[in-house]
Fold each of these.
Amino acid sequence: MSQPSSTHALPKVTHLIFDMDGLLLDTERIYTQVSEKILEPHGCKFTWEVKAKMMGRTTKDTIRVLLEETGAPLTEQEYFEQSNAMQVGTSSRKEIFDVKTSQNQPLFQHFNSITCGDDPNVKLGKPHPDIFIEACRRLGNPSPEQCLVFEDSLLGVEAAKRAGMHVVWIPDSNILKLGHPDDHGACEILNSMEEFDPAKYGLPGFEA
């Protein structure tokens, strides 16, 4: 599936920026399993409708949304502690990034720079554009219009658009089943990174 957002020609870009959780690494599945285990004793369900509202947010905002939407009788700190006890971590702080990527070094060695959520220049989480603006700065400050972002969440798509960048949206199939706004702003909606054609954006093709 490839769904362009409009009939206009796709932009020509020079720099690529990738979200990590749920896109490059299958961490969202782990987060889902942990949330289900924490909520089950309280008779609360963790649905894709709830998950869709959480994806792309900071750890604090994610927990707040989850508790508000499910009505689970837990404080944010209680949920955070239980979650951390079940998994490696729940945010993209630098030390957690190191743990998450430790088994995937050949992949991440291809990246020119890494921007984490606890970077001092990232004041606000998505849908604010801070993390993409900082990522752009670390790449040498190319024009935002020369940057193409890959995201799995609508909040991430919105953040990238606010930064003045182009976006390819690669959501979980369960998110698409919920429907999505026609004005999402992404250049394309893809099922996976394997469907991405760099030549469409003026980039060199994949090596054989």
Amino acid sequence: MTISSALSNAMTGLRAAGTNSETISANIANAMTPGYGVRTVSLSSSQIGGVSVDGIVRNVNPALLADRSLAQSALSNATDRTTFLRGYEDALGTPDNPNSLSSRIAEFESSLITASSRPDAPERLEVVVDAARDLTQLISSASRKIQESRSEADRNINLQVNQLNTALAGVKELNQQITRTQTLGGDTSALQDSRQALVEEISEIVSVRQIPRDRGQIALYSTGGAILLDGGAAEVEFSAMNQVTPFMTLSGGQLSGLTLNGYEIRTDSMRGALGGGSLGAQFEIRDEFGVDAQTQLDAFTRDLIERFQDPAVDATLAVGDAGLFTDAGIAFDPLNEVGLSERVAVNAAVDEKQGGEAWRVRDGINAIVQGDVGDSRLLQTLSSTMTAKRAPLSGSFGSGAFSSSNLLATLTSKLGADRAQAEQGQTFASTQFNELTQLVLADGVDTDQELQRLLLVEQAYAANARMISAADEMMQTILRI
């Protein structure tokens, strides 16, 4: 080997060592950076001697990343669903909560029994009115909570659609940059890291599958079959509402669905084209969970109002007159049930806060003057009305007959079962995502291994530097001869 060839070999070794040290330093610095792929330097023997740097290799497990993306989508979906059901259950309250709807029903029934034992006591009649008012206020509050959740879901859909469009445009741009960089022979690792971060952002919103394409590009397809990115990026459109009311539904045309490149797509939980992630969960909350919750609560409220609107219960009522509980001050109309739970109120005739008199609870809603203060027959009838079994005329409670408290128990028990099932699904999704994340991290930067590699690089650098130094000494010796 000539001195010049030895010097050339040593110089290529120094360059390789320098590239290796830079790569190792970048790995260690980004050990905790999400989406970072471990880099290694690809080396080969040069035909003219020495070592050649062929490029930087980004080491990732595509199958593992794909599984984690799907798990991330499932976790986002399950978390949003569980959050809604928990919020609605909190609005109704659990039976052990003194401020729950169950407790308010029990307090109202108890106040009727107490008042019937002393119908001449005005304060006991006032307690009945107060208990009835507290009951209606809690029902109205729960109904407003449902619509607030639906309104929030509508706003979240708008935000996520904008975020999705921005992320898809970003992936498209990075695809093009990666192709250009590859063509010029540059390192695309940082660009791939950025693209993977955007793909994970998209996965939280929509469940997607990543398909490799030529020249380093990728395509994105939703698990529902929609093409989100394949060369060009899809454009998703949505029209948000400021406030969602019980009368607004997707099927009725008052609420917006989604369009993909100008074409309407399904958004339901069964066959939604962009389901599986947080976006699908928001549509479920707005168009399925929220609508069903409102329907069930309205059905319960209807049953409550109709129990006291019957002239057979209160002889002072005529057909079409409002009873103790009203629909915003008037009698309930079966054709106007939607949103009833938000409008329910105590009849102004018995409510002193609305100019009424509490003694009408004892003598009849439409009584003009007080009757016998010792007459407890109406109070006893009202109490019996609450415990009487009747089949609800709306809702999905089945064909059985229920007392008012039994009907509420059926509603809350189903809600509790749905919430427990949602929490179970969330726990499974969270466990799966965490396990896959740990596997991805295990394939990530191992700082101990990187430091060991750095020591070897330092040794190689020192050896090549010593070779250059020896070659220099030899050249100086020859020159002095």
